[in-house]
Amino acid sequence: MKILWADDEIDLLKPHILFLQERGYEVIPVTSGNDALDVMKEEQVDLVFLDEHMPGMGGLDALSAIKEIHPTLPVVMITKSEEEHIMEEALGGKISDYLIKPVNPKQILLTIKKHTEARRLVSERSMMSYQQEFREIGMRLMEPMDHADWTEMYKRLVYWEIELSETEDENIHGIFESQKAEANAQFCRFYERNYMDWLKGLTAKPTMSPTVLRERLMPMLGADRPTFLIVVDNFRYDQWKYLQPLFEQMFRVETDSLFYSIVPTTTQFARNAMFSGLMPSEIERKYPQYWVNEDEEGYKNQFESELLGENLRRNGIGIRHSYNKVLNAQYGWKLVEGVNKLMHNALNVVVFNFIDMLSHARTDSNIVRELAADERSYRSVTRSWFVHSPLAELLKELAAREVNVVVTTDHGSVRVDNPVRVRGDRDMSVNLRYKQGRLLEYDVKEVFEVKDPASIYLPKRHITSPYIFARNNDFFAYPNNFNQYVQYYHSTFQHGGISMEEVLIPWVVLRGRTQAQ
User: Fold this and answer.
1) 3-state secondary structure at position 432
2) Which residues of 408-443 are buried (b: 16+ CB within 10 A; e: fewer)?
3) Could you tell me the pTM of the whole model?
4) Which of 113, 172, 305, 498 gives 20 to 30 Å between its CA and that of 474?
5) Cβ proximity of 469 and 497 under 8 Å
6) Which DSSP category does 203 fall into?
7) Tens digits of per-residue pLDDT, 408-458?
8) What pLDDT, in 10s, does the model give residues 234-248?
9) CATH (residue range 2-116)
10) Domain residue ranges of the chain, discontinuous segments joined by +
C-alpha cells in the first residue's frame, strides 16, 4: 500500500515513516502541496496525509486540487491549528479525517487502517461475531417463543442480514440463509397455531393490522402538534433498517417496533383493516359500501379515507384530518409544496405506493429484475428511490417542524423460489401467495388451510370457499404450463402469505433533530 505524506517538516516525521515501513507500507515523503500534486501525476497512491500549513500551496488548496483529480481518494489533514473555521473548511472540502499535531505513530497506523482496510476488518469481525450469534439463535429457536419473542428474533435476523450483506464470503451467506429459512418455517407454524385464537381473543395477542392505529396512533393525537402517518406500501423491516441512517440525518428515532399483519398480507385486506380498525368481514358487514370483493369491479382500496374517518369516530376522536395517496411523483411533489396547509390538521395520512409498484414491476420487467436481483439489491434500489423521492423531501420539511412523524406499512413481501401445485376453477383468486375458490385442489401439508373464512374474519364468496396461504418462500403454481409458470415467477417478490418478511412490519416514530425535547 502506497502512502503520500506532504509536510514541510517531513524530516521530523522520520520515526513515523519508519514505523509504517516496518509494517509493509510504502511512504512517499514530500514537503509541499505542489510536490504532492506532481507525485500524483506519476504515481497511484492509496491515501494522502496533508499538512494544513505549508509554504506555497497550503493544505486546503492542495485538498481541493487532489479532490478534482481523485474525488474518492482518502485525504487526511494533519495540523497544529485547532481553529474551528479551518476544521469546517476541511470538512467542506470532503476531507476523510482530521488530526491535531502532535500525532503518534500508532494513531497514524489506525487512521490508515480506518480508511483503507475498514471494510475488510468490519467484514471479518462481522463473520466472527455471527458465528457466535449463529449458535445463540439456533438455541433460541429450540425454545418456546411468544409473539414478542418472535419480533425480537426477526430484529436480530434483519440486523445480521444487513451486516453480512457487506461481506463477500458466500459460505457465510449460505449459512445465514439456512438459519433464516429455519426461523421462517418455525414462525409460520407459530403464526398458524395462534392466529385464530388471537382474533377470537382467546390468548394474549400482539398489535395487529386492525388494532395498530387504536393502540399506537390514537394516543398521540391529543398532543399539541400535528401527527403525520406515512404509510409506505409493502415496506419491509429490512428496508427500513437499511434506510434508517438516511432518516437519522433528519430525525431521532423514538420508537423502532414491529406489529403483525393479518392474512392475506395484501393491500386490499391488510391496509383496509389498518385504516378501518376492523377485520375484512367486519368491514363488509358494517360498511358494505366501502368493501369491494376480489371478484367485483373496482379499485379495492378506494375508500381508505372514509374507513379512517369511521375508525376515528367510533373511537370518539373528532379531529380535523387529511388523507393523501401518492401514486406518482408529480402528485408527491405537489403535496410537498402544500405542506403548510397540512399543518392545520391534527392528523395527516400520506400513502406512498412506489415500493409495492417496484415489487410488481420486478415480476413483469426484465430490467427491474436485473436491478433488484436479490434481497441486497432490492434494498439498494429502494434506497436509490428514497434519496430522490418526494417522500424524502416531505420528511425534510417535517423534520424542521413541531410534528410527530410515524412511518409504517400495511404488509411486506418475500422472495419466492419454491412452487406448490394448486388447481382450481376460473373463479380462483390470482394471487401467488394465497388462493380462494370453490374447487381448490392442493396438498394440505403444503399450505395453511382455512376451510371457513368466517373463522378468521374474511368475506366468504361462496358457501364452500376456503382460503389457503403459502408459507415461507413458497408460491402457488398451476399444473398447466407448470415449468413456464415457475420460470416466470421464480425469485420474484410476492406477498399475500405467511413469512416473517410479510407479517412482521415496521412501526417507527420519529422526532425532528431541531425540535425541542
Assistant:
1) coil
2) bbbbbbbbbeebbebebeeebbebbbbbbbeebebe
3) 0.85
4) 172
5) yes
6) S
7) 999 999 999 999 999 998 888 899 999 998 889 999 999 999 999 999 999
8) 999 999 999 999 999
9) 3.40.50.2300
10) 2-116, 119-200, 212-413+502-512, 417-490
